[in-house]
Amino acid sequence: MVLIRAQQVCKEYQVGEVAVQALKDIHFEIEPASFVSFVGPSGSGKTTLLNLIGCLDKPTSGTLTVADTDVSSLDRASGAAFRGRTIGFIFQDFNLLPVLTVYENIEYPLLMVQKIPPGERSRRVTELLSAVGMADQKEKMPDQISGGQKQRVAIARALVTQPKLVLADEPTANLDHDTAYRVLNLMKRMRDEFKTTFIFSTHDQKIVGEAEILFTLEDGEIKGIQNKGGNGHG
Q: Does the residue 107 lie in any domain?
């Protein structure tokens, strides 16, 4: 079974008069319960590829299928609905809601997207607060906590919906060594328990070391796929 399939995916941006090729003829398959990292220098196309998989952008050409859905054909509304059901995001700049507490930020997608009953919401949020080491900060507002703590909240929020797929852009950039490993272990546990696939875009050697499949991107092309063992293959 394949969770994500890219076939001849290209992405072009218009910069003034010039067409910039961000991705060129990308082909790959990723199975459920994979732990994958996109690696490569800045500007190699890693974040562009994450955005396409996450329906935040569309390919210029080619087809991209995620969880049996051709995401290249979704309009904005159906793309948003698909994201809410299927994908968890961990953004580099956190994207926390400033008017909500730490607890409410994590709970928010369960209220807005998934309509989970109160008892189950409380159980999930409390469990993840504890897992990311933020239980004692749950009543604080985002402007009262550090960058590393915001990152932990963002990670908990991405995992709380128990998505099929988590897309993470430099998720450990603001975390100290111990917290980073704690978060990676939590993600692996979720992968084993819920068959969640994790895809990272990163320069962090901790993640590169833990990833089971590495896609190396350079100048918008996949230059290599390394399978270090585990559940999936490229």
A: no
The Cα 187–Cα 33 span in angstroms is 11
- What's the domain range around 188? 4-94+158-227
The structural domain count of the chain equals 1
Helices (H), the chain: 46-53, 76-86, 102-109, 118-131, 147-159, 177-194, 205-210
Average pLDDT, 10 consecutive residues per value, the chain (234 residues)? 95 91 95 94 91 93 95 90 89 89 94 85 95 94 92 91 92 84 87 91 88 95 87 42
Q: What is the pTM of this model?
A: 0.87
Contacts of 29 (CB under 8 A, 6+ apart): 2, 4, 5, 6, 233, 234
Selection from 2, 143, 151, 127 nearest residue 68 by Cα: 2
39 falls within a domain? yes
Does any domain span residue 181? yes
Domain CATH number, residue 35: 3.40.50.300
Report residue 84: phi and psi, to 5°: -60, -35
